Amino acid sequence: MRFTDLNASDLSLARHGDDLELTNVATGDVVTLKGQMFEDPGDWGVDKIEFADGASWDRDVILQNGYDADETVTVQGTSGDDVLNGTSAHDLLWGGQGDDFLLGGYGGDTYLYSVGEGSDYIDDEANSPYQLDVLKFTDLNEEDISAVRDGVNLKLTVLSTGDTITLDEQFYSSTQYWGIERIEFADGSFWDRGDILRIEESGTNLAGSQLVQSTQSNATNDDGQLYENVIQFPEAGLEVNVTNRDLLASASNQTGSTSAASDIASAEIISLSDFLSAPEHMNTATDLWYEPEPIGAVI
To answer: Where in the numbering of this chain does the Haemolysin-type calcium binding-related domain appear (predicted)?
Structure first.
């Protein structure tokens, strides 16, 4: 079997019975090798897997990787603060309530998190291109969290609770595989490793309509008018790129019509692109509205 544009690092492995599944990490597409792991003598399945970079796996390597992918260990915490240690196999780690420390170790590990389960710290400590490590939110979507780079760590904040999930050394290397390779959300969307590495220290806007430092979706003003999104700037000097139309930017915890002058930060830089290109059929009276406060502020 030859992959024309994929390398070994682009795939994750899973064994299901006698079959071996190769998953494209970027797309989620699966190639199934039927009967590849059938142990009866006779050389079932393919004898060699070749990759775009010239590397290859012979039958022994294929079988070994398949056996390694067969074991899954579930490690579950309590309602208190736990320290959970994974194994060298593929672990499913769920800290539960409380502020937990999760150490996955080697193997393709999955870390589960649900809203209200406290602030967790995840240290995967495995640098392998062949094992897919996943943070899976069971009831949270992209718009429910903010993501910010904190040194070499990645900090995810649940907007409704303020709880954080810290991924240890996620940005230790852009070419190696420390940290996790995928963040999955309840609605089926996900961030792959490339998406994660694009997160900057000031935050991210990966999905286009989500936010950077802080966000509220479907916010309303005093008149009850619905806004698609609200961007909030909690500190001076924050630089944000906005590419989504119909977006209300506010420097306080209120919408633009109610923000107090005392809440306005002094040195925001807001870059707006494609903001005035709403289709004519939308009959948009005003695409962008900005009210400087206090009087005399410089635009």
So the answer is: 19-60, 153-193
Q: What is the pLDDT of residues 37-55, one digit of tens each?
A: 776 556 788 999 999 999 9
Q: What is the pLDDT of residues 239-267, one digit of tens each?
A: 444 444 344 444 333 333 333 333 333 33
- In this predicted structure, what is the pLDDT of residue 233? 43
Whether cis (ω within 30° of 0) applies to the bond prior to 292 is no
Instruction: Say what the pLDDT of residue 154 is.
Output: 94
Q: Between vectors from CA 32 to CA 28 and to CA 33, what angle results, nearest 5°?
A: 150
Which two tokens mark 263?
């809440």
Helix, strand, or coil (residue 118): coil
Q: Is residue 204 within 8 Å of 148, Cβ to Cβ? A: yes
Measured CA distances, 266 to 152, 208, 250 (Å)? 28, 25, 12
